[in-house]
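Below is how a single chain appears once it has passed through the pipeline. First comes the sequence as given, then the structure the pipeline wrote out for it. We keep one example in the README because the format questions we get most often are answered faster by looking than by reading.
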Amino acid sequence: MFTKLMPGRTTAAAEGDVVVLLIGMRINHFRGVHHWLPVMLAMTRMLRELRAERSRGLLGHVLLTASPRTYYVVQYWESKEKLYAYASAPDMFHRRAWAMLNRKEKKSRQHVGLWHETYIVPEGGYESIYADMPAFGLAAATGSLPIEGRGRSAAHRLAHRSGVK
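Resulting structure:
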């Protein structure tokens, strides 16, 4: 699958605060596939669920690997409130997946590790540049615009404020 390249230099069209969730797993023992595969499949199911219900607040995500053992997702959310609401919603798969994992935790812990980090980045605390790239990361989640729309230097892009020309 090829994504259309955007020639030249662009930046993310994000406005306001940016909510970034990094969430992942580490396979501690490959032979414990019956412990770590359900965790991996649960994440893909949650992402499918969130894509189907855009109103839940997930703007976009990137699946990444840090090693043959470590996989993670960078997620961009509309707000921390929508992230919290999804995580605790009784009708969404996250609650069920977390409950299943907690029931199996003592046995699974030795086979699979889990982690997440959440960042609320205020406007003026992020900037981006993409050169001859398809939409990626924050730009894939929020849209992109020519670099001139935010400034040619990182300092100018960091100084950008919504609604201020």
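The chain has five helices and seven strands.

See the next section for the split statistics.
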